[in-house]
């Protein structure tokens, strides 16, 4: 009875953009990702406290991504069951371990906390874009832009929250901040009770079968994600460390990351709706040309010019995400969560593996040279844009 009612409601609203529901999930994304953004701005302090090399520091990001190996299976499960509590519990399950990283007495304990966070991140990010696609109707680019804006705003504000909390309470004393994540899960429990979250699949398809159905779009996206991953690793994992090495100021490093993410918010808001109108491939092409060029200038120039190119890099590099998410959902058929699971797995693993490589380059030849090489590798993703299936403007 309930599932029939949910299906009827979904059918009635399929052609509409449900702004209230998309906004609610975007706010949830914001709060969740504030916590998961704590690592990068606090990394210089953690490196100092535990006497880590840059390679070890890069592996911290990698350990958070390892649970992404399970993303296709989580998606396959979400396509068959009611995944309400996946979404509801995620903010609390992410907030607790990320609020405890300053208390970690050893590298091993820190790895355990970040691995636990990685599980929660997967549990949240795999099924939620499926809901966004459902609630966005034909405006999937716009819906993904709203959703990803929540995440990028979190990564804009999160570094400032982390540095501010540590400044006030100390690295080992900022753990009470986890309370806000717990309260968010309570709010979600109350507010999502009436939101239909039943599985969408009418026939069982294996994880491998989902791959076969979507590989025509996944294969080019994988190549793009790997090429883009070098630039993304530089900016999200090592930017505060890179800036602090050159300025000696932790706040300047945190502010630089916040500026990068703020520009990314603008790019994300623009790219999704624009791709609905002029096509996904055109938007991806422009973004993937501009991002490595601007990153080269971030590496080569200093002073205020560096911050100007930092904004361009954030706008162009991060604007690709909602466009790619929309493409995955458009080609997912009856397996939207499983298809998104494949995409998220590849995305997370590409970024995590590349972070270690960038950290290793930083140890061997310095972060500035690592940035320069990563920008050059970013150009390799451009040819794969035209291997993606064509998509016409929706309006």
Account of the 3D structure:
The chain has 395 residues and is mostly helical. It has one domain (2-387): Up-down Bundle (Growth Hormone, Chain: A). The protein contains 18 helices and no strands. Mean pLDDT is 82; it is low at 1-12. Helix 3 (39-50) crosses helix 12, helix 13 (250-278) crosses helix 16 and helix 14 runs antiparallel to helix 15 (303-318).
Return the domain count: 1
The structural class is mainly alpha
Tell me the CATH architecture: Up-down Bundle
SSE run: HHHHHHHHHHHHHHHHHH
**Biggest pleated sheet:** none
Report the oligomer: single chain
- Specify the CATH class: Mainly Alpha
Distance between the termini: 36 Å
Overall morphology: globular
């Amino acid at each position: 009875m309930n599932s029939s009612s949910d299906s009827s409601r979904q059918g009635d609203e399929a052609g509409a953009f449900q702004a209230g529901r998309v906004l609610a999930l975007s706010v949830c994304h914001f709060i969740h990702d504030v916590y998961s953004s704590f690592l990068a701005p606090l990394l210089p302090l953690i490196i100092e406290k535990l006497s880590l090399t840059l390679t070890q520091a890069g592996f911290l990001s990698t350990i958070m991504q390892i649970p992404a190996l399970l993303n296709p299976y989580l998606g396959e499960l979400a396509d068959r069951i009611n995944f309400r509590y996946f979404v509801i519990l995620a903010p609390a399950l992410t907030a607790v371990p990320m609020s405890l990283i300053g208390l970690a007495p050893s590298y091993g304990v820190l790895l355990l906390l970040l691995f636990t966070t990685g599980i929660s991140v997967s549990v949240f990010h795999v099924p939620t874009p499926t809901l966004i696609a459902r609630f966005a109707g034909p405006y999937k680019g716009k819906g993904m832009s709203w959703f990803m804006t929540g995440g990028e705003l979190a990564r804009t504000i999160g570094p400032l929250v982390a540095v501010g909390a540590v400044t006030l309470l100390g690295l080992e004393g900022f753990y009470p901040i986890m309370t806000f994540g717990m309260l968010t899960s309570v709010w979600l429990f109350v507010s999502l009770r009436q939101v239909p979250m039943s599985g969408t699949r009418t026939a069982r398809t294996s994880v491998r079968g989902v791959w076969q159905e979507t590989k025509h779009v996944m294969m080019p996206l994988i190549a793009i994600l790997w090429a883009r991953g070098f630039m993304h690793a530089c900016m999200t994992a090592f930017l505060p460390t890179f800036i602090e090495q050159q300025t000696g100021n932790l706040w300047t490093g945190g502010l630089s990351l916040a500026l990068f993410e703020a520009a990314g918010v603008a790019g994300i808001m623009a790219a999704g709706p624009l791709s609905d109108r002029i096509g996904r491939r055109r938007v991806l092409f422009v973004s993937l040309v501009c991002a490595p060029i601007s990153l080269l200038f971030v590496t080569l120039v200093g002073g205020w010019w560096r911050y100007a190119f930092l904004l361009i890099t954030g706008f162009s590099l991060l604007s690709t995400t909602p466009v790619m998410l929309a493409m995955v959902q458009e080609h997912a058929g009856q397996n939207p969560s499983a298809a998104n699971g494949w995409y998220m797995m590849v995305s997370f693993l590409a970024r995590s593996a590349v972070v270690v490589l960038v950290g290793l380059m930083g140890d061997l030849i310095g972060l500035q040279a690592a940035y320069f090489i990563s920008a050059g590798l970013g150009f390799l993703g451009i040819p794969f844009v035209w291997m993606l299936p064509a998509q016409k403007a929706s309006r």
